[in-house]
Design a protein that fits this description.
CATH class of the largest domain: Alpha Beta
CATH architecture of the largest domain: Alpha-Beta Complex
Radius of gyration: 23 Å
CATH superfamily of the largest domain: 2-enoyl-CoA Hydratase, Chain A, domain 1
Shape: globular
Number of strands: 21
Strand content: 15-25%
Structural class: alpha+beta
Number of domains: 3
Length: 472
């Protein structure tokens, strides 16, 4: 998984793996709506410009296959798209008297026709902006779903001189990161502080774990205890290259200073890129860190435990899922199956309450060891599938902090006619007890947050608590 946008990376993995079209969410969904878009059957060809026809395809794809598409008020999508259109016109100094929102009635096809006519009337007058207007319009339509697993993937670029495994950004991670920034910022709590210095500009400027970020480009990261959009600037994605000015406090010395960091490529620690890492703790406890539910990752975890078990008697397992942005629900189910058999791990439901069950794979051998799972607010998607199942089925204990609450449902990918990828859930995820996890997260059995002083001293209180519990 990427170290900056873990939830986005987990979603990208799901979209890339999509291979079968899900059923429409309701029986009355029309055949035309369910076939307007289809999963990719091969590697897409080169991307072509986004046009109003592509926007139309995406609009009806959402209405026909998104899990609540049958009950969705489509006017909200078109309104969001037109808002983005007019804002982009204004940003470019090209606002037009004809750029007015047409009246919408609730008839999806008639409303689309009205929207298209107004859209064409505007874009025909600003041909130089046509491509940009199409992009912001479609981005806004997808964003209007308010779904953390809905995404339009387009115009993917890598920076020049990129080498496989490189990172891009400021070269730091903070305690508010990954899924929280774009998916569920409400779970973030102050203060904002550096947890890891990965390299790049942050390393060159001498930042350290535990440094408190008091302001970002002059704006407070928290106001009234709530996260602000200013935090987004800590995690720029290529080609974003604007320098970011930070005001910092180092508690151990009382030093306050400002630094300007320029985004760029940096080399990451190769060991940190491994999806599964393991080691022996206290001579009898298997510690396994898993950064994503990538293909075959469950098997790699089980093999790591087996190797640590060779020639010794283990007394427990610590599975560290902090920062795990998710991935494959099948891998999550398979890993749960190593700790409990004969159970339901999750439900995937349509808007009218018809649910499919995800059950344990009882061909997987049981580990038969006490399990502690370390979670944090960057454990998202498939990570939350696993964590909620372990908690609800009493197969282990969760230690750390509440998970991200970024698990609306397994994303399916659909290829649009300009060779871009539209992804969103066809079903909504519920935990084994049929509880909603999306936007709420999974609470730990033992709440052990990381503080800035812990980070500065290199302490890991959650791991220490897990080891204490296993020793009882």
């Amino acid at each position: 998984m990427t170290v900056i946008r873990t939830a986005a990376a987990g979603l990208a993995l799901l979209l890339a793996a999509a291979c079968t079209a899900p059923a429409p969410p309701r029986g009355q969904a029309s055949a035309a709506a369910s076939t307007v878009c289809a999963p990719p059957q091969r590697t897409p060809e080169a991307e072509t410009p986004t046009t109003i026809d592509v926007i139309e395809q995406a609009y009806f794809c959402i209405l026909g296959t998104y899990y609540s598409g049958a009950t969705l008020d489509a006017r909200s999508l078109l309104t969001a798209g037109f808002v983005a259109l007019t804002q982009e016109l204004n940003r470019n100094g090209r606002d037009l008297p004809e750029a007015t929102m047409p009246a919408l009635t609730g008839d999806r096809k008639a409303d689309w026709t009205a929207f298209e006519n107004a859209y064409r009337k505007v874009t025909d007058q600003v041909p130089g902006l046509r491509d940009k207007l199409a992009i912001v319009t479609l981005e806004a339509i997808v964003s209007a779903l308010g779904d953390n697993h809905a995404r339009w993937t387009h115009d993917a670029k890598r920076p020049p001189d990129y080498y496989e495994g490189d990172g891009y950004g400021l070269g730091l991670q903070a305690n508010v990161n990954g899924p929280q920034v774009g998916g569920n910022p409400g779970v973030a709590v102050p203060p904002l502080f550096v947890t890891t210095v990965q390299g790049g500009a942050a390393q060159a400027a001498g930042l350290r774990a535990g440094d408190i970020v008091e302001s970002i480009n002059g704006s407070a990261p928290f106001i009234g205890g709530k996260a602000t959009p200013a935090i987004n600037a800590l995690y720029p994605q290529y080609p974003e290259a604007r320098p970011v000015r930070l005001r910092l406090l180092r508690q151990s010395t009382g030093r306050r200073w400002s630094v300007t960091l320029k985004p760029g490529l940096f080399q990451r620690d190769l060991a940190a890129l491994q999806v599964v890492r393991s080691k022996l703790l206290d001579d009898s406890i298997a510690y396994v860190r898993m950064t994503g539910f990538a293909p075959d990752s469950a098997n790699r975890v089980l093999k790591a435990i087996s190797r640590l078990r060779t020639g010794r008697t283990l007394t427990g397992v610590v599975l560290d899922l902090r920062g795990n942005g998710g991935g494959s629900p099948l891998e999550a189910t398979r890993l749960v199956s190593a700790f409990v058999h004969g159970k339901v791990t999750a439900y995937q439901c349509t808007v009218d309450g018809k649910c499919e069950t995800s059950r344990t794979d009882d061909t997987v051998d049981l580990v038969n060891l006490p399990l502690m799972v370390l979670t944090d607010r960057s454990c998202a998607s498939a990570c939350e599938h696993f964590s909620s199942a372990i908690k609800d089925l009493r197969a282990g204990l969760l230690v750390g902090t509440r998970t991200a609450g970024v698990i609306s449902g397994p994303a399916q990918g659909y290829l649009l006619r300009n060779n871009t990828l539209l992804g969103f859930p066809a079903r909504h995820h519920l935990g084994p007890n049929r509880e909603v996890i999306d936007r709420i997260g999974v609470p730990p059995d033992h709440y052990v947050p990381l503080t800035s002083k812990d980070a500065a001293a290199g302490r890991d209180p959650a791991l220490a608590k897990a080891l204490t519990l296993l020793s009882k």
